[in-house]
From TrEMBL:
Listed name of the protein: Glutamine synthetase
Family: Belongs to the glutamine synthetase family.
Enzyme Commission number(s) of this protein: 6.3.1.2
GO biological process: glutamine biosynthetic process
Matching PROSITE patterns: GLNA_1 (PS00180), GLNA_ATP (PS00181), GS_BETA_GRASP (PS51986), GS_CATALYTIC (PS51987)
Entry keywords, A to Z: ATP-binding, Ligase, Nucleotide-binding
Catalytic activity: L-glutamate + NH4(+) + ATP = L-glutamine + ADP + phosphate + H(+)
Keyword check for Ligase: yes
Oligomeric and partner information: Homooctamer.
Naturally occurring in which organism (per UniProt): Steinernema hermaphroditum
Amino acid sequence: MHIHRDTFKTDKSIAERYYQLGKNLSDCVATYVWIDGTGEHLRCKSRTISTYPKSVEELPEWNFDGSSTGQATGANSDVFLKPVAMYRDPFRMGNCLLVMCETYDNTGRPHATNHRYKCAKVMSKAKTLKPWFGMEQEYTMLDADGQVFGWPKHGFPGPQGPYYCGVGPQKVFARDIVEAHYSACLYAGIQISGTNAETMPGQWEYQVGPCEGIEMGDQLCMSRFILHRVAEDFGVTITLDPKPIPGDWNGAGCHTNFSTEEMRQDGGYKAIEAAIARLEKAHQTHIGYYDPQGGRDNERRLTGQHETASINEFSAGVASRAVSIRIPAQTFKDQKGYFEDRRPSSNCDPYAVTGAIIRTCCLNERRLSRCYGSSSEEFIEVTKELSISPKTEATAVTSKHEDNASSCGTQ
Ligand code: ADP
Ligand code: MN
Ligand code: MN
Ligand code: MN
């Protein structure tokens, strides 16, 4: 049963009076943002900070009720927030901040959904290689009824073809949101590098990057928060579901472009080929890291149709969009540059994705613990073991599972 409403919106002209108050204040309000128990959705809460922080380290740790976010039980519900990156707040403006946070349980261990902890360690090991990422975030807009924004209420729009990079009212919907999000990201200090309308009407993309190391995950997460927050003002819902409409409609991915300094220099093509060879051997493992369900979400999207390659087979090619890894034509021509991993789903955890790429391509690790195709119980156990105590990090980084190579970890 749908409750029919035109919009979720309140009257923004009334709200504007109060937003004006905020703009003239010198106080610093910090909005802490974190990934919740789904491993996908974001939560936030705000607090007034007494002195404006010079760096993120000066921001206080905080906590929240993890029993309300799927991150703790009621009896032991405190989850801790550790600020890790801060941005200018494009909503409150003035001295206000958006703060990306990691989550820790009350014994000081990174929460199972805190993939940033591991990612940051991996990135520091690979720092001298100067790894750059650029992620292409595809997303779909839904109206108040939960249907794709701009689609007819009964039936479907005309088949795909005219919508990708389209212009005009029959081709693209809600560009206002896209433009507002773009400006808000620039204001915040996010390296948003472009945007385009997608193949399915109501679907859009923006790109963030190139970002070095851990910044990729931080910036992409905050850009997603800003997107949901902007869309909230317009009464539109953003979904990052990788296949929102089954059938002959494109799904949504989060293509991840990658290079190291060596790949960007003359003759870097050899290093690109070497990295792709390693990714081929670790295909199933990587699928395990490329959506929050260990590959289950991507099953609906990576069908081998609609500009994707099959989830079950690895492939690579120059300029092809029906492959797992695409080498841009320019990279082939220059014999240097970057490559594109087309497998990550739109709702992927960017820390899990970029961490896995570095471990396989740069650190030559062959025993990543996740693996697509393993039983769900095994998957949960592995996730638990990834909770590493920061106090005993030296010993804890290698979990038991990672020692006992999983069936596809050594392929
Ligand atoms: P596509 O042709 O696949 O649609 P896009 O233009 O949407 O490509 O996205 C390309 C992404 O690659 C951007 O996020 C950009 O920042 C990133 N990028 C560009 N150069 C590099 C590089 N050398 N290393 C990593 N990422 C890069
Ligand atoms: Mn793109
Ligand atoms: Mn795209
Ligand atoms: Mn792409």
